[in-house]
Amino acid sequence: MQNLDDSVPNESPAVNVVDFIVCGTQKGGTSALDAYLREHPDLCMANEKEVHFFDRDSYFSNGRPDYSQYHACFTLERADQLVGEATPIYMYWYDAPRRMWDYNPNLKLILILRNPIERAYSHWNMERIRNAETLPFWDAILLERERCRSSLPLQHRVYSYLDRGFYLQQLRRLQTYFLDSQILVVKNEDLKSNPTAILNRICDFLGVSRLESITHKDVHSRPYIDTMSDREWEYLKHLYEYEIRGLERLLGWDCSDWLAKRG
Question: Which residues contact 1 (CB under 8 A, 6 or more apart)?
């Protein structure tokens, strides 16, 4: 009798469930974290960063989605690997938390939060380089609400420079479905300044061994044509100050550096 294992020697193990997701925030360092996690032998990250499954409404329009389509985005080397992906818009997309919970209520979620003032400017700069944005930053943020109406009742994927920085509402949406023990929130600045410490926390959170050697990564950094003007920075500081203070209370963080203008 033919050995079935011998008949398909190159077939990788099947993915039964995705165990963890890096779900936010955009321009927060998710690309760097994804690159770090790919170096861990006990983790299987998606074949490409940003699978965009739980934010695609078309996948969920006819009831239960085809999860095999999702699982096809991963290639396991061993059956005992933890499976994960990084799609930062999930944190922002209204329906993504419920969809993720319906898929796997035991999911672990990792969030990297960045100073929302700097995040907004970085987001605009990315879209400018992609030729998706033609307005100067000041005009873009003043016209954001008007421009984003075109996507209602959904969020706007491009022009949501300011809206994505209101993290409290996004965190509470995730906490509606997932226990605090399933959510790990870290600072973008800490990942940059001390990646070893942050990655140790993430490995402990996921229940895998710590990485023995870490080489600093700088992924998807884009050049800026200019810095934010004083007027733009003060406008965003006023917009986000209450939000930042609330985040400090919720997470026990000191975010005073987020409100201190860089020279």
Answer: none
